[in-house]
Amino acid sequence: MADYRIETVRTGYRTWTARNDRGAEVSIGAADDADAQPSFTPVELLLAAMGGCGGMVIDRTARAVDHDDLRIVVKSVSGPEDDGRIGRIRVSYEFELPDNNPRAADVFARGVRLTHEKFCTVSRTVEHGAEVEAILPDGTVGFRAG
Predict the structure, then answer these.
(1) 7 pairs with which residues across the strands?
(2) Residue 127 confidence (pLDDT)
(3) How far is the C-alpha of 73 from the C-alpha of 50, rounded, in Å?
(4) What Gene3D superfamilies would the database entry show (predicted)?
(5) Which of 96, 109, 112, 130 has the greatest number of C-beta atoms within 10 Å?
(6) Low-confidence residues in the chain, pLDDT < 50
(7) β-bridge mates for residue 132, sequence order
(8) pTM of the predicted model as reported, rounded to 2 decimal places
């Protein structure tokens, strides 16, 4: 498993830009701020990461099934009892299984299972949690959990 580094810089009030070392950028802002659009919210980026990771794993684990038209929809569901966290995440794999492959449903289901059980780092991290450290400007740990 590779290690990653993302730099997130403030570009205005409640607007940020995240950059990777390969030069890609994504805008981050509040959904209710018209001046921040178009952008993703932090939660939307988490959901997008789950969908993208799952899709890349499916490309490898379900190669025997033509899935060019696959669409992955990731939805968060939260209530007051979730105390500012996502309560549940639903990942829907949407496409029509090909008629010319009688094993397509089983192969695809195996690919989805392997995505969440073994290969999708993002999904597995969300499902199992990770240790989080917040390092302050003086190098001390300001917060630790996990």
Answers:
(1) 19
(2) 92
(3) 10
(4) 3.30.300.20
(5) 112
(6) none
(7) 145
(8) 0.90
